[in-house]
Every structure is written in C-alpha cells, then in structure tokens.
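Study this pair:
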Amino acid sequence: MSSHLSIRKMPIDESPEDEEEVPTAQTTITSYCSSDVINEVMNPLIEQVKDVAHLEEANHEEDTPNDKIKLESIFEGLGSFGRFQQIQFILICIPIAFVSIHVMSWTFVVSSARKICNETNETLVDGCEELAYSASDRWDMNGDNAWIRATVQSVYLVGQMIGSFTCGVMADKIGRKKVLFWCLVLQVTCALLLIIAPTWWIYALLKAGTGFTQPGIYGVAVVLGIELVGKQYRSFIAVIANVFGVVGGIILSTMAYYIVDYRLLHAAIAIPSLIFITYYWVIHESARWLVSQEKYDDANVVLCATASMNKKTMPKDWADKMEKKVDVTATKKKDSFGAVDLVRTPQMRKRTLANFVMWPVTTMMYYGMTMRSDVGGGSLFVTFVSSQLMELPAVIIVALLIDRLGRRIMYSGSIFTAGVFLLANWLTHDLIPNQYAVVMLMIAKGAVSVSYTVMYTYTSELFPTVIRNTAVGCCSTMARVGAVTASFIAFFLVDRYGRIVMIIPFTILAMCASIVSWFMLPETVNKPLPDSISEIEGNKI
C-alpha cells in the first residue's frame, strides 16, 4: 500500500493546532455582515443558499454511486407548500363546493311547494305560492309515488358508483388532470340540461351524469392535492377539501331558501360552473404521477413551474440521478396495474378489504344523516344548515389532532363515537326533550364528518402511487352501495317505518367499521407515500 503526503503552505503565524473547519456558506456571509441593515439585506440570500445547499446535498452522487436522490427530497427542496401548491390547491378545491351542491340539491328540489313556502315564510319570498315549483309537484312524487324520489337519488348514486371505478382507474392510466377536466365539462353539461328535462326518468339519467363526475372531481382533486404537497401537509389537504364541501352545502341551503322554483335553482347552480372550462389551461398534472409513469420531460415542466413560482432552484439532471423504484411484485409494464392488484398480494388484500368495509358504512351514515337532517324534528332548512355547520368543528378537530393522534385512531374513534351517540339517541328519545335528542344527532353527524374527512387522507396514504387513484376509486365505488342504501332509507323507509330503520343499522355498522379499521390497518402518519406495491409488501410503509 502506498501513501501519499500533501504539504499545505501556511502563514508563519498559523499553526496546525489552530486550524479550523471550513465555514459554511451562512457563517461565511454573516461573519462579514455585522450591521443589522446588512443582515436584513443578506438574510433572504442566506435562506436561498441554504435551500440550494439542501438540494445539492440530495444530488451529491459522485462519491457513492449507489446513492440516489429521492423524489421526496425534490419536493421538499422546491417547497412543501409554497405559492405554487397553494394556488393549485385552491383552484382544485373550488369545484368541490359545487360537487357538494349537486349531491345535496335533491333534498330541496324534491320538497313540495307547500312545505317550502311554509318553511321560508312568504314575507321573505314574496308570492311564494305562485312562484314555488318543485320536481315533486311536477312529476307527482308524493303519496304512493314516493318511491320515485328515492329512485331518482339512487340513480344519481349509481352514476357515482360507475364514476368511482371508472374515474379512479382512468386517473391512474391517463393522468389526474385529464380526468378532472373532462368530469368538470360533463358536470356542467348535465347540470344545464337538468333545467329543461321533460320527464322524471330523463331527469334521473342527467342526475346520474352529474353523479358520475363526483368521484372524478372530489376524489381526484384530493389525490392530486395530496401528491402536490410535502408529507407534513398531506392531512391538511382532505381537511380543507371538506371545508369547501361544507361551504357548498351552506350556499345550497341559502339559494334554496330564496329560489323556490327548482328549474331556477338548477340554473343558479349550473351557470357559475362554466368558469371551470378554463381549468384545462391553469391546472397542472401531478408531477409525482408523471414520474411514476416515467414521463420525466413532462414532470420537469411541472417541477420547473413549481421552482419558479416558489422561488427555488431545480437540481440539475434530477431525472438521471433519481432513485428508481422498481416494483418487483409485477412483471408487467408500468401502465398495466389494475383493480386486481388491490387483492393480488397479502398486505394489499388486507388493506383493500378493510377499506371496503369502512367506505360504504361511513358514506351511508354521512349521506343518510345529511339527507334526513330533520329526522329528529325541526325545520328542514334549520336542521340542514346545522348539520352542515357541525362539519366545521369536525374539520377543526381533524386539523388539530390528525397528525398528533394519527389516522387510525382518529377514524376508528370518531366512527365509534357516532355509533354511541346514535344508540344513546334511540335509548333516551322518549325520556328527554326533543332538542336534546337533536343535539345528540348533530354530535353523531359531526363525528361521522370527522371519520369521512380522515378516511380520504388515510386511504390515499395506504396505497402506492401506481394504483392510488384506482384504490380510491374502487373504495368510492363500494361507498356508493352505502349511499344508495342511505337514499332509500332517508326518502322512503323512514317515512313508512320511522326513525328506527335508520338509527339501529347505522349504530351496528359504525361499531363494525371501527373494529375493522383498528385491527386491520397500520398507522401512516409522518410516513412517506408508498410508490410501489413492493414497498407495501415489504412492510416499508
């Protein structure tokens, strides 16, 4: 073994003992800037140097060829939730408010003119009896024909079921942006045609069209948002998305209070939606999805736009240096992942089955308690708005606790709480004043809202990028089974057999969902998003 000695020239007054480490960029700059004024000028530059240093550290590959830059490092280096992410996220959340409006609009559209006028008070809506016109009045959906009301809403939810699977799979195959945009176009088209629908069955088919678009808007928007930001902000995405849904419900009840002709109400909902046609030019594709499809040039465009707006610096040759995650569980092409992969391997199968219990139960309770918010008595408008407002404290609870307690305990605990308060309402209904029974139902609705909000974040984190939208889509498809059941319970069975047909099944199923989620699923808080099925099966996530 040969040795090589290098002699460094030193000033006379310098000794080896006094040698210090080479200062960092920040200490070098600040050592020459003692003035407060200069510090104020230089601090932004210092932060920029630190950001660049962070990216360069992630990209430093020369000494260890096997080390690769991780995709998560690129996102963190470009800003986990900078200006680019904020603008994109707000834009994809706005349509969620309209999704909420379309989902709940049938509650008011089907109410008879007499009921609407009694509850709005003719002093607020001048000439209400002459102006009011509901779908129920037009197509005689009262009395023995009440089944038509449940059928129309069920057809809408069947459209959701088809859309959940189709949009989820297509979003993984052709991209999040394309599915989101075309669903927005279809929703606007069907919403405009609802105004002039000549028969109830044509109306129902058009409602199914709007239902088809809901998963492609809400579900894809949440996944797109989660893939847009750093891991510390992922829980924030579903929470804020749910806030927009609450706002949509409040806007709907306000419009329905003053617009007593169902055709004008549909026009008021549909016309503002035309602005979403511009989304083709303003919404970016998910860079994470583009990388998973090895579309590095397209991903580079999105990442450069992110860096530019966030005032960050892109790492050089990031695609060549990036760690490639090869999925050893599949011997097929990257674009051939499908729904069967959700149950092909043990860990994926376990997660899928648990979610197939959670989603229909939570959705059935959420829709049932919203569509029949007056099941405990009171005005339809008052109880509907109260039900929507209960979601705001639910959202705050999720925002404050989801990262501290974790996804699993938040979902399991909240759905269990909903079941407890529903059971308490049934057991004490004849022993306490009606207003207390209503409060119990509102608390149960708030708890369901917590579980519904957590569920989207939790499911999105449980499944890998290559099949994430397919997983959410399939779960949402299963959820429509619960939603269809809820519509028949809310619009048909409760009127015939009383509130017990809602409360008892909801209570039992809530307990089951709580137990399944607690014992079958792992915690995902503060863990990186899985990109491949092999990460799941290797228990890395």
Observations:
- DSSP finds 24 helices and no strands in the chain.
- The domain at 76-322+337-537 is CATH 1.20.1250.20 (Growth Hormone; Chain: A;).
